[in-house]
Amino acid sequence: MSSEAKGGRAAQLKHTGLRPGWTTGACATAAATAAYTALLSGDFPDPVTVTLPRGQTPSFALAVEELSADRAMAGVVKDAGDDPDVTHGALVRATVRHAPPGSGVVFRAGPGVGTVTLPGLPLDVGEPAVNPVPRQMMREHMARVAAVHGGSGDVEITLSVDQGEEIARSTWNPRLGILGGLSILGTTGVVVPYSCSAWIDSIRRGVDVARAAGRTHVAGCTGATSERTVVAEYGLPEIALLDMGDFAGAVLKYVRRHPVDRLTVCGGFAKLSKLAAGHLDLHSARSQVDKAFLAELARTGGADDALAERIATANTGLAALQLCAAAGVPLGDLVAVAARDQALSVLRGAPVAVDVICIDRAGAVVGRSGVR
């Protein structure tokens, strides 16, 4: 990454004036790392340092710890920074036990951590609601601890969150079929503080910096996974990546007044289905996936009445996408085209070519619009 790109990104982050925090996934990784270290060595590292997906190495103080002959438990209090996160201050615990040889890392849901009960999420029904990136983080840290202290790396990790079931009632988990508590989340380990005015201002500054650097192609991305996708697709440098988050409208309206030759919008299928339906704010608190809209869109791609009905009653947007994929209906492409057309309507004839890429949670492309 060039010094110019670093400077532009740093300026965006500094401008917000908000303190970032740590995800439940980062806290769970820290707790599990401390617990497994104690199980093998007899001592809890406090603070415990972990490595996040983007290379940061934060240290976490332990709030609780407990060691016996066959298990170790450690807990970390989540600090969400300046984000108004309902899980801020929650105590995330990890209890680690030895598992049979060859079993690898097995995850269990303890009190306050939910279990998946409906299809359409990136986890199988019956699995603890511990998302893929936190699982990978914990696997990697268990392997590192095992290498240092002579363990096998075969462990059972039971995650729990004090009052998690009560806190989860303030989230979308119950509606998504995640029952019994919270999800252990995070794709970067870092909580970016949510502030409409600060975030939107940072988007505007990102456009300004990209234009000043002579970039003619920028990408509005909903998160880290979509950033990786557009970099892989187009080789864009970091300075051309706009951390759009949920604010699609902010990107489009500012680019309308400050045009670039080409704008790529990339994000998760469910979020971009909201843009396709006409929503410019993609946050779950202010817009929802409209499955009836998806059903009608699928009809234009060949879905029959029975499939359209199943889409309209699907648990999630991902579930609707999976139904269409099985039937050979290109719902991802249809959503991408509809989202592109909505973007063009907001641009109101500004000299900006637009394309849209929809991805799944793993970053695989599930829909494209083409450039127009």
Number of helices: 12
Number of strands: 18
- Estimate the strand proportion: 15-25%
Gyration radius, rounded = 22 Å
Instruction: Order the strands across the largest sheet as they lie in space.
Output: 4-5-6-10-7
Structural class: alpha/beta
Low-confidence stretches: 1-16
Measure the end-to-end span: 30 Å
Number of domains: 2
The rough form would be described as globular
The amount of helix comes to 25-40%
Order of helices and strands: HEHEEEEEEEEHEHEEEHEHEHEHHHHHEE
Calculate the mean pLDDT score and round it: 90
Largest sheet: 5 strands, mixed
Keywords: Cobalamin biosynthesis, Methyltransferase, S-adenosyl-L-methionine, Transferase
Family: Belongs to the CbiD family.
GO molecular function: methyltransferase activity
Organism: Streptomyces fulvorobeus
What report would you give on this structure?
It is an enzyme of class 2 (transferase). It holds the Pfam family CbiD. It comes from Streptomyces fulvorobeus. Pathway: Cofactor biosynthesis; adenosylcobalamin biosynthesis; cob(II)yrinate a,c-diamide from sirohydrochlorin (anaerobic route): step 6/10. Belongs to the CbiD family. This protein is an alpha/beta fold and 372 residues long. It has two domains: 20-191, CbiD-like (2-Layer Sandwich); 196-368, no CATH class. It contains twelve helices and 18 strands. The strands form six sheets. A five-stranded mixed β-sheet has the order 4-5-6-10-7. Strands 15-14-16-17-18 form a five-stranded mixed β-sheet, with helices on both faces. The longest helix is centred in the N-terminal third of the chain and has 18 residues, at 24-41. It is globular, with a radius of gyration of 22 Å. The two termini are 30 Å apart. 44% of the residues are buried.
